[in-house]
Amino acid sequence: MPYKLNIAILIMAAGTSSRMKAIKQLLPWGENTFLGNAINNAKNSKASRVLTVLGAYDQEIKKVTDFLGTESFLNPNWKMGLGNSIAYGTKHLLEQGADYDGILVMLADQPLLDMQYLNGLIDNFSNSKHSIVATKYDNNRVGVPAIFGKVHFKALLDLNSDYGAREIIKAHLNDVMGISADGKELDIDTLEEYERVKKSSQ
Question: What is the DSSP letter of 166?
């Protein structure tokens, strides 16, 4: 029986949703919310652990993570950007002593990405020699959700900007396997986008 890789998922939910003019993480989605949907998909995947990184609106959002029985924690420096929150989440994971083979970084505002897609990323990471498995976007770009192998943990810890993990991916393109999400990779930034996607998908 093949060795089952130990993958942790970091859900990034620390942003202010400034363009949305609402708490994006708590927008209704089906019978849930954006964040609740992301957490359920992550918890039902093949990952062994799920953590949510909070920032803006942490008190309101923590009620959701507590209700769903999943671990969340506040990055006190969340205003420094997505990269800082990824670094904080990675540090929190690694300090607790578990030996992870990879960390899957995902966002709370990509509601079309489901458990099957997350499992596809995990399966491809498990069955390939690539140290990063990432999601394909238009114009030959790749980004999150993405799994970073152990060799990149230090780079995740060193992030400290608003660019998230994009710079790590760009610096190691030869090590990246890109996976198509067939249009489900859409991230939603405005109420107009939200209403349009909600209408067409539910």
Answer: H
